[in-house]
């Protein structure tokens, strides 16, 4: 698939003397994708709180800050690289770079500074294993996903989903200092959750992706195939999310929550998977699945923490 | 040869807008640096007083 050649970005606003207007600090903040960062911070905190062991509050705060800043740096590098593509998509056209409110180099430098700084502080304050995985997660999102996979393959979001799966893994490792099966399971849960979450969104904004020449699954493989794949991933996610309970790493509180939440996720995915959209039908099942998927992940990880503290306080075996 | 547009002085509104953006950035940079100084101090104290992590 040949990417559409986007139009040139609008120039940054200039003063009558031809000098670039200073970029507002809010635009730098917007580069970090604060909306995405909420989920990153939340899953990282949950990974940290659910891990066996404890961490000094100052160091715990530092680890979460580094994960959040690292994610912000990766997001800035993503927007620096994709500024041309963002300019032709309605959903992203008002971002600081396509909106002409910032120089491209500023976004690049900001992204590198946040990424490098977060990895260094994580290494010095917490440990170099957590720092190494944080560095790899930034590289994974800003290069493997953004530069390499996204423009080349409709499986971009499957493999790229790994980028968003790192925060709980890093949060866990910040406490324990090593990698065990449980943080890998948390990684895999988010990894398997990402395709149905993102493809539900892609189904109702697919016109945008086709305009930008991004080979998203609905654009390349068609709606029917995408719907089946959403269903397949949701079906695989249900037993996977219950695995921590099966192996005895969590109690029944988490197990029950994973079962109920996963069953609803699967039910909504069945509704999306087995239907054919009609023009102008509003794509309500897809929008409902997308909204629920965010709720699902928040509650699932919250229940992981509740389960751990219920065990600590003796409320469950 | 293309004609360059005439350069005019900045209007008071434009000057105010530039100053507001510069002030906003300076304030945020100051806050960020102050926060980092406090954070690094706290990390140092914790590292000195708390036994080695992950052992």
Written account of the structure:
The complex is a heterodimer of chains A (317) and B (55). Chain A has 317 residues and is mainly α. Chain A has 2 domains: 23-179, Tetracycline Repressor, domain 2, CATH 1.10.357.140; 180-317. Chain A contains 13 helices and no strands. The radius of gyration of chain A is 20 Å and the shape is flat. Chain B has 55 residues and is an all-alpha fold. Chain B has a domain at 20-50. Chain B has 1 helix and no strands. Chain B has one helix at 12-49. The longest helix of chain B is centred in the middle third of the chain and has 38 residues, at 12-49. The N and C termini of chain B lie far apart (72 Å). The mean pLDDT of chain B is 86. The interface between A and B is medium-sized, with 23 and 20 residues.
Which keywords apply here?
heterodimer; A: 317 residues; mainly alpha; Tetracycline Repressor, domain 2; disordered N terminus; B: 55 residues; 1 helix; 0% strand; rod-shaped
């Amino acid at each position: 698939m040949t990417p559409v050649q986007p139009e040139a970005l609008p120039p940054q606003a200039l003063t009558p003397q031809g000098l670039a207007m200073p970029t507002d600090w809010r635009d730098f903040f917007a580069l970090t994708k604060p909306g995405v960062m909420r989920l990153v911070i939340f899953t990282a905190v949950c990974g940290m709180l659910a891990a066996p062991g404890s961490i000094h509050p100052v160091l715990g705060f530092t680890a979460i800050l580094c994960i959040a800043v690292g994610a912000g740096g990766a997001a800035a590098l993503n927007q620096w690289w994709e500024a041309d593509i963002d300019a032709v998509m309605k959903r992203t056209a008002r971002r600081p770079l396509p909106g002409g409110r910032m120089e491209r180099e500023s976004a690049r430098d900001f992204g590198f500074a946040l990424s490098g700084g977060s990895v260094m502080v994580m290494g010095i304050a917490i440990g170099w294993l957590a720092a190494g995985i944080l560095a790899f997660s930034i590289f994974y999102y800003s290069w493997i996903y953004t530069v390499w996979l996204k423009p080349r393959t409709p499986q971009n979001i499957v493999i790229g989903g790994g980028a968003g799966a790192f925060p709980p893994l890093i949060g866990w490792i910040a406490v324990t200092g090593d990698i065990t099966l449980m943080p890998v399971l948390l990684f895999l849960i988010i990894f398997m959750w990402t395709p149905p979450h993102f493809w539900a969104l892609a189904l109702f904004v697919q016109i945008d992706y086709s305009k930008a020449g991004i080979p998203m699954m609905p654009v390349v493989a068609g709606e029917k195939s995408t719907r089946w794949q959403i269903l397949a991933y949701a079906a695989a996610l249900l037993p996977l999310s219950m695995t921590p309970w099966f192996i005895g790493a969590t109690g029944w509180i988490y197990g029950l929550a994973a079962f109920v939440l996963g069953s609803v996720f699967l039910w909504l995915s069945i509704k999306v998977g087995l239907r054919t959209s009609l023009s102008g039908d509003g794509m309500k099942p897809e929008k409902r699945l997308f909204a629920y998927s965010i709720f699902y992940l928040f509650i699932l990880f919250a229940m992981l923490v509740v389960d751990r503290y219920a065990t600590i306080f003796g409320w469950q075996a | 040869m293309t004609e360059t547009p005439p350069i005019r002085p900045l209007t008071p509104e434009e000057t105010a807008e530039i100053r507001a953006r510069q002030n906003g950035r300076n304030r945020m940079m100051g806050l960020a640096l102050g926060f980092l100084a406090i954070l690094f101090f706290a990390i140092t104290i914790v590292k000195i007083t708390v036994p080695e992590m992950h052992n």
